[in-house]
Write a structure and sequence with these properties.
Keywords: Nucleotidyltransferase, Transferase. InterPro entries: Aminoglycoside_adenylylTfrase, NT_sf. It is built from ten helices and six strands; from the N terminus they run αββαβββααβαααααα. The termini are far apart. The chain is α+β, with helices and mostly antiparallel strands and 293 residues long.
Length: 293
């Protein structure tokens, strides 16, 4: 894998000798000193050019940075004056290229508020036409977890507990695939993840970004909470998934109450208790039951 010094040098040597390339801006994690980085961290380069047509017509230029394993999309397509090329090289270097014209740099310089991907951090690597000087500096706060409104909080509470009933019904029916969709997708990523983010916001005074889809939860969560979260992950056994549903509910309940108390929001304890009664009734039903008794 290429280290930053080598990667930047290779890119700039190519760009400085190519009249089509006018501006290069680095974005995402490698442009944010607060981000957690390792050797697998992508390089996110935005190339601003005179004319997009050469980059629509050929991808040969991508080979200047190594032997390609994969590129996405397979064929370059212009989308609102942008071309995207996501490339993985044999040496493990992963580069996401976004290509536009220098007009996009002018628009960025005239923005009263930076787009989130720039506010999260950017570095100008090349500016042949001196167009980037008026781009506002990043605040590095674009993806910091924000406090929920009371309406947002209540909506997540309502949706989480309501959807646990779907999981219980499907567990009784032995519908593993749908159980996994609801429990490990909808409930985990739409509701539990949101509450964990809020919980971390409370713990860190709303000053951290745990990254997308909980990537950095293990780094930020206290050990007991992380271990509690680990126990919500199970395999294909139906009984194990019943237990995972309850462990997920217990964790969600505890964290939601802490968040609600901190923000002065009312937690729907009566609703939780009624849903828990329903879950228990479903779990205790005979597999061949015809009535909900």
């Amino acid at each position: 894998m290429k280290k930053e010094e080598e990667m930047f040098g290779q890119l700039l040597d190519w760009a400085k000798n190519n009249e089509e390339i006018r501006t290069i801006i680095l974005t995402s994690s490698r442009a944010n000193s607060n981000a957690i980085k390792d050797m697998f961290t992508d390089y996110d380069f935005e190339l601003f050019v005179k004319d997009l047509r050469p980059f629509l017509n050929s991808d040969k230029w991508l080979e200047k940075f190594g032997t390609i394993i994969k590129r996405v999309p397979l064929k370059a397509v212009e989308n609102e004056n942008w071309i995207t090329r996501l490339v993985l090289y044999e040496d493990g270097t992963k580069i996401d290229f976004q290509i536009s014209t220098n007009e996009s740099v002018n628009k960025l310089a005239n923005e009263t508020q930076l787009p989130p991907e720039y506010d999260n951090g950017y570095k100008v690597l090349l500016d042949k036409d001196n167009l980037t000087k008026d781009i506002k500096p990043p605040s590095y706060t674009a993806f910091i977890t924000k406090k929920p409104t009371e309406e947002e909080y209540s909506e997540i509470m309502n949706s989480f507990w309501g959807d646990t009933a779907y999981v219980a019904n499907s567990l009784w029916r032995d519908e593993l695939y749908f159980v996994k969709f609801m429990l490990d997708n909808i409930i985990r990523f739409n509701y539990l993840q949101k509450v964990i983010e809020w919980y971390l916001g409370v713990k860190y005074d709303w000053k951290i970004n745990p990254n997308k889809c909980g990537r950095w939860f293990k780094r930020y969560l206290d050990k007991p909470t992380w271990e509690e979260l680990e126990k919500t992950f199970v395999g294909a056994n139906i009984e194990d998934n019943w237990n995972a549903l309850y462990k997920t509910a217990d964790l969600f309940s505890r964290l939601s109450k802490e968040v609600g108390e901190n923000l002065g929001y009312t937690y729907p304890l009566e609703y939780e208790n009624k849903i828990r009664e329903y879950l228990l009734r479903v779990r205790n039903l005979d597999n061949n039951a015809n009535t909900f008794e």
